[in-house]
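Reposting from the mailing list since nobody answered there.

I have sequence plus structure tokens for a pair of proteins and want to know whether others read the tokens the same way I do. The first protein:
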Amino acid sequence: MTEEIKVPETRPAAKPPQATADDFMVYRNARPKEPFMLPSGKQGWVWGLTPTEKRAWYDSCVKVREPDGDERIDDAFADVKLIIRSVRDEAGTLLFKDIDLMRMIEWPPIILAPLTALCMKVSAVGGKADPEILKNFAVMFMSGSSFA
């Protein structure tokens, strides 16, 4: 005797409500932030840059023109310039100023390399945002956390 297999009944998914301009605008000043642990055990914060802040960082960097006409950053201090704009306290206040650059370039690689990588990841510098950052950002936003 064969056993009858019951296939679960599927219902069409409900159509989601249509987004308005205001629904998009709530994200205007929203930005992700991720903690960064110093070797001393103290925690700092890396905030994602707004498009305006990202443009200011890019404009502050030395660039070269490739033979194909494309422009690329060729600045020995681009990493520190990004850190200056990204590292903040938990409330979003910048910890560094451009004047700090010459002291910051002396940081050891144990701090500079992972901090630069996190700054790039949180601000999607290099072309794409990290899926984990986007997921954390969505959770933070949906929970009602405030943004700078």
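The second protein, same order (residues first, tokens after):
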Amino acid sequence: MGLDFEELAWRRTSIGEIGLRQLASHLHPGGVFAPRSNDPPGDACNAVLAEVFAESAARVVRFPDPLRHREAGDTIYVARRSPDAGVAAGH
């Protein structure tokens, strides 16, 4: 079983749960955060987003890569803050 370094990064760096909670606090109620990744959807990334946001999903977006003459794909994670969430002070 190999290590998934992207998933480890989500848990152990500022973009982990604490960083995402801070980021979410700056979104308006119902606001969306949508990061992208070169890697396939990861369970740990999905789990952290699900802990922080009311809704979350991962989608693979495929597109032609003219430089490599092949199809490429990125993962787009879409997370929505609860529409009932309060607005942070100063926003």
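Reply #1 (J.P.):
I read it the same way you do. The first strand starts at residue 32 and ends at 33.
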